[in-house]
Fold this sequence. Notes:
Blueprint: H1 8-11, H2 13-16, H3 32-41, E1 60-66, H4 71-76, H5 78-84, E2 88-90, E3 93-94, H6 100-109, H7 130-135, E4 141-145, E5 157-159, E6 166-169, H8 179-182, H9 185-188, E7 191-193, H10 194-202, E8 209-213, H11 225-240, H12 243-246, E9 249-255, E10 269-273, E11 282-284, E12 288-289, H13 290-301, H14 317-323
Parallel strand pairs: 1-8, 1-9, 2-11, 3-12, 4-7, 4-8
Antiparallel strand pairs: 2-10, 5-6, 9-10
Helix pairs in contact: 5-11, 6-13
Amino acid sequence: xxxxxxxxxxxxxxxxxxxxxxxxxxxxxxxxxxxxxxxxxxxxxxxxxxxxxxxxxxxxxxxxxxxxxxxxxxxxxxxxxxxxxxxxxxxxxxxxxxxxxxxxxxxxxxxxxxxxxxxxxxxxxxxxxxxxxxxxxxxxxxxxxxxxxxxxxxxxxxxxxxxxxxxxxxxxxxxxxxxxxxxxxxxxxxxxxxxxxxxxxxxxxxxxxxxxxxxxxxxxxxxxxxxxxxxxxxxxxxxxxxxxxxxxxxxxxxxxxxxxxxxxxxxxxxxxxxxxxxxxxxxxxxxxxxxxxxxxxxxxxxxxxxxxxxxxxxxxxxxxxxxxxxxxxxxxxxxxxxxxxxxxxxxxxxxxxxxxxxxxxxxxxxxxxxxxxxxxxxxxxxxxxx
Length: 386
């Protein structure tokens, strides 16, 4: 099995974590025998008999992230143009920072915690995520990661076994950074390969909250916008004509970040799915960012806050109109979002801040949810990540 070597410091990271916080996997890059053994016993959850929880505007929300493309290039792609005609183009949608990993992290937990690179990092179990919010109301959820070797895989990456191409990468898996998900056997059984999406679709057993990550070629990272656009069109077109999938479903197709770091970090985003026919081919000029992905879920199902970047974030207007949430007018003239603010991963003197209450909670609940009653000063338990 061909597996990429990474810096020795990264390879030693997990062994440097104290026993109290020891992970359930042995190495960052397991060998072929370890992967084969783990795949044979990996548990995968099914939602076939799960009861749906109705939302204010939608009963299912699907997020798909593509990679590293400037807004001007994305809107010029021929395949994305076709998809845009079937939905609502968000003309004022921004990424949060650079590089990729902090944007995925923030979309799941409401913060990138000072991260400004794609290193192998972990967040302790007392840091809540969207999973905690969804499970507070028994809303089913899953990730579908293309070419991940098995359900719940926690390794740094996985290469194509025939070509050696960069297929699955951990940095594009939003929940795997959070120990509250990755080290929880039930929750990690919801982090699936994209082939499981096809099986769940055929069985009419899809969960209500879905995050989809294409592989490093299909998302445009190791290819180009034409490849990413074609993959998106070919993947979504049959789904949008599938009544089981589309009914009461919102699909958000966007990019993790733009390509030109010196420019404003505006990215393409379009709302698809069960969109009113009179709104197809229209534009929404409201300001949104990746925190809106969390706030919109909170508003749709009346969920608690994470008490981080989700607090006060704008909600997709399609949902806000059904919940009475008032979005803010944001002047983006000087908004660049092209560098991470200091935080836990960039400065060893900074702890993870405790969640805060919110004066304008999207879900109507001002108190943040808690993941675990443990201390916020976790340097001793999680050393050597800086």
